[in-house]
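Key result, reporting period 2: structure in, sequence out.
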């Protein structure tokens, strides 16, 4: 190890390799303040340096864990004291913006918020958005195929990446920086790396697909008595709003009540509680026309019995207050000793039945388990939090969540990935032949298993 560190220090310079306290002073993950564990953190400044790092590690069979903003939620950056982390933090430049082609070429360490702001300065937008925007990197988002808000309209990273530059485990650089929407010249290699969680290659650069800036948005919080109303409302708004519906975030009553109750600084705008709430938002360019169109669509929904009450945000501050109800996690942190988070996909039509079945099964496992549900309903994606006041073993809760999901042929990860955390449950969502093909791909691209070993497949 000392030889490798010295070799890489000579290559990357004194600031290019961190060891000892410089590693331990960093937090393990965004949520876990325990000291980071790794023999060293490599901080290359160019694709050539990434390639040289991987070549050296490959020759010695050294494990390499790619590191972006470390905001991932499935232990995908867990390293251990005998491996090295390869951070893209010194490769965060925005290379170029093509206004006509609506693309941006960036280094993989570029922070999402920087990319979004740069796009706006060109009257364009990069529409993938998520709560970790100030810390997460484009490389990490590609590696996890991140989603977030607006997926129903703009897609996940897979739909927003046109090309990538990747370094393979042995240091080979694959430059596939396609910049067109259409390119059917053989296999679309970038797709292999999107969502591969750093197990097949290190993403060093990407061409992102932008859109014309939509400068106006209008937001409402809607209350419903039944899940049938919620799904009817989604179809009605999507049909009526001519493609401008951008978000349809649903909150089950218990989640909403906690986030607007005594443990929260936020308040419900409604006088009475409801079993379901939806935060709906559309974006376009003509602010007045958009608002009028939106309000008409909501009135029609009220007349058709698709909602019981609604408030439309009248200012940016009111919009922020509505979104805060969806985004805050403080009340659950105050309320429970332990919280377990899940990110699942299943058919929209089965969601209500799944949640009811899960509630009943959880009650059998732990009398005081509380199930809080919210999610990107239009994407078929629910986020579940199981709040506990005692320490029921995590794997018993996981088994119940995924057993119920298997019945609906759901996915154990919708947008966060597999990492270490969900590895044991991958067979719930994937056939044996799919898993075998994944293993073959891994063996082909990383035969010595040095890239993020143990993640996804083990
Ligand atoms: C507050 C918060 C909100 C979030 N909301 C969402 C959400 O709405 N939707 C969603 O999809 N996700 C969400 N996430 C999780 C999401 O996965 C990450 O925020 C983001 O995609 C990870 O980017 P990162 O740069 O932090 O990657 P990291 O956490 O550093 O890494 C994630 C994985 O990618 C690998 N990796 C990192 N960089 C590279 C690279 N250059 N090449 C190859 N592999 C690499 C790592 O080894 C690891 O396996 C949220 C996280 C937080 C903390």
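The corresponding designed sequence is given below.
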């Amino acid at each position: 190890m000392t030889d490798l560190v010295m070799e890489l220090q000579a290559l990357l310079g004194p600031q290019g390799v961190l060891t000892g306290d410089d590693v331990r002073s960093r937090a393990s993950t965004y949520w876990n303040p325990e000291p980071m564990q790794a023999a060293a953190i490599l901080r290359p400044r160019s694709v050539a340096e990434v390639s040289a790092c991987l070549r050296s590690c490959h020759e010695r069979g050294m494990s390499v864990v790619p590191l972006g903003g470390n905001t991932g939620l499935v232990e995908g950056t867990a390293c251990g004291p005998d491996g090295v982390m390869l951070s893209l933090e010194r490769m965060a430049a925005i290379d170029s913006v093509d206004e006509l082609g609506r693309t941006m070429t960036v280094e993989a360490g570029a922070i999402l918020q920087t990319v979004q702001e740069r796009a706006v300065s060109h009257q364009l937008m990069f529409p993938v958005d998520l709560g970790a925007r100030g810390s997460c990197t484009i490389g990490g988002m590609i590696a996890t195929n991140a989603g977030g808000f607006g997926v129903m309209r703009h897609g996940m990273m897979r739909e927003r990446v046109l090309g990538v530059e990747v370094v393979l485990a042995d240091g080979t650089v694959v430059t596939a920086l396609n910049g067109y929407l259409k390119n059917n010249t053989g296999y679309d290699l970038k797709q292999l790396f999107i969502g591969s969680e750093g197990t097949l290659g290190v993403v060093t650069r990407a061409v992102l697909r932008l859109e014309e800036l939509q400068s106006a948005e209008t937001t409402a919080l809607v209350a419903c008595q039944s899940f049938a109303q919620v799904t009817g409302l989604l179809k009605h708004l999507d049909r009526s709003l001519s493609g401008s519906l951008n978000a349809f975030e649903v909150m089950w009553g218990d989640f909403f009540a906690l986030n607007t109750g005594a443990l929260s600084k936020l308040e419900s705008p409604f006088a009475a509680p409801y079993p379901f709430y939806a935060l709906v938002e559309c974006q376009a360019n003509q602010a007045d026309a958009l608002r009028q169109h939106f309000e008409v669509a909501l009135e029609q929904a009220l007349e058709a019995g698709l909602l019981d009450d609604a408030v439309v945000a009248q200012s940016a501050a009111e919009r922020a207050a509505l979104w805060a109800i969806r985004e805050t996690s403080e009340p659950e942190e105050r309320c429970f000793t332990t919280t377990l988070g899940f990110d699942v996909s299943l058919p929209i039509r089965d969601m209500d039945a799944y949640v009811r079945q899960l509630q009943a099964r959880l009650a059998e496992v732990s009398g005081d388990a509380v199930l809080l549900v919210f999610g990107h309903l239009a994407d078929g994606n629910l986020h579940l939090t199981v709040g506990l006041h005692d320490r029921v073993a995590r794997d018993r809760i996981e088994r119940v969540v995924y057993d119920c999901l298997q019945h609906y042929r759901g996915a154990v990860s919708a947008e966060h990935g597999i990492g270490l955390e969900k590895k044991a449950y991958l067979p719930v969502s994937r056939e044996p032949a799919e898993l075998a093909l994944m293993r073959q791909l891994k063996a082909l691209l990383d035969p010595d298993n040095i890239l993020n070993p143990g993640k996804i497949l083990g």
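Residues 339 and 387 are 5 Å apart (CA to CA). The chain has four domains: 2-87, 94-212, 216-327, 336-433. This case is discussed further under Risks and Mitigation.
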